[in-house]
Design brief:
Blueprint (H helix, E strand, L loop, with lengths): L1 H24 L3 H26 L5 H27 L2
Helix pairs in contact: 1-2, 2-3
GO molecular function: sodium:proton antiporter activity
Protein name: Multisubunit sodium/proton antiporter MrpF subunit
Membrane topology: Multi-pass membrane protein
Length: 88
């Protein structure tokens, strides 16, 4: 089972690197906002995989709260960018 966890962590790391690349080279503010949201989702997924690997579910509430906070922040930022572009 540790092979599956290793492969999963490797794929999450590759996805994280691609997301950071998108964050740095994003063409618009919305691209960067989406990249940050995806990056936070990858962190939550890596935390979940780590909890599964250790058979320890003590951080589930923390991961869920972090994901909810990131989602709320992304929605708020997208609304602000939308309003800013509407007034141009």
């Amino acid at each position: 089972m540790s092979i599956v966890f290793g492969i999963t962590f490797g794929l999450l790391c590759v996805a994280g690197l691609l997301t950071v690349l998108r964050l740095l080279r994003g063409h618009s503010t919305l691209d960067r906002i989406v990249a940050l949201d995806v990056f936070v989702s990858l962190i939550v997924a890596a935390t979940a995989v780590g909890m599964g690997m250790r058979s320890d579910g003590s951080n589930i509430a923390l991961a869920a709260a972090f994901a909810l906070l990131a989602f709320t922040g992304s929605i708020s930022a997208a609304r602000l960018v939308e309003q800013k572009e509407r007034y141009r």
